[in-house]
């Protein structure tokens, strides 16, 4: 009989980096919910059922899930953009672009797209 050590099911609570990793992976579910919600909205708009969609979307549980999804999606986006300089190496004439410039470019693009969306919606 071989020895099998007991499994620690809460391994991710040992270090902050592990916890952030697990939370970031779990936020993918809320990102998926946001995509499904937008597809339902587009389907309702194409099918002429927007009043029924808005009535459903005004339900308390849908509002709660959407607020939670917004927070989770922002967390997912920020952690993704913070990891980008570690995963992306850009060289220009042998010079490595510093991480803060990669992050700054990503955050600037995020801000520009957000402003564009707000301008289109207003």
Automatic annotation (TrEMBL):
SUPFAM superfamilies: Fumarate reductase respiratory complex transmembrane subunits (SSF81343). Keywords: Cell membrane, Membrane, Transmembrane, Transmembrane helix. The chain crosses the membrane at residues 21-41, 61-85, 97-121. One of its GO terms (cellular component) is membrane. It comes from the Bacteria. This is Fumarate reductase subunit C. It comes from Acrocarpospora phusangensis.
């Amino acid at each position: 009989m071989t020895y099998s050590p007991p499994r620690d099911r809460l391994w991710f609570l040992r270090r902050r980096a592990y916890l952030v990793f697990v939370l970031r992976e779990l936020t993918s579910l809320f990102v998926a919910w946001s995509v499904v919600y937008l597809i339902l909205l587009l389907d309702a708009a194409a099918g002429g059922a927007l009043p029924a969609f808005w009535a459903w979307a005004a339900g308390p549980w849908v509002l709660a899930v959407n607020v939670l999804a917004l927070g989770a999606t922002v967390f997912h986006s920020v952690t993704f953009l913070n990891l980008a300089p570690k995963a992306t190496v850009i060289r220009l004439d042998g010079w490595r672009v510093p991480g803060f410039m990669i992050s700054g470019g990503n955050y600037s693009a995020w801000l520009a797209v957000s402003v564009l969306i707000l301008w289109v919606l207003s």
